[in-house]
Amino acid sequence: MATYILLSTLTDEGAETIKKRPGRIQEVNKEVETLGAKIVAQYAVLGPYDFLTIVEAPNNETVARVSLELGARGSVKITTLAAIPIEQFIKGLK
Question: InterPro entries recorded for this chain (predicted)?
């Protein structure tokens, strides 16, 4: 499985939902898993993003689908990054 980093920013609508129903975050996490990705870690962060989520997915298409499905709801904007383990990165340079 490949590793991906999702940097999420809530829209005004998304922030209102989380304020009223914080448990919605965990509901969405379960939905992500039904789309074929596994959440490895998740953090609320300060700065330009609201959440940093590390996921594993079998391929780019799966994680793209996750990002599109969640983003299409209008409650969050997501930046998705593919992450390469440093050992693998170094090996690829040799």
Answer: GYD/TTHA1554
**Which ranges constitute the DSSP H helices of the chain?**
12-20, 24-34, 60-71, 86-93
Cα–Cα distance, 44 to 14 (Å, whole number)? 14
Residue 40: CA atoms inside 13 Å, Cβ hemisphere, count? Answer: 12
**CATH class for the domain made up of 2-93:** alpha beta
Give residue limits of the domains in the chain. 2-93
- For the stretch 37-63, pLDDT in tens is 999 999 999 999 999 999 999 999 999
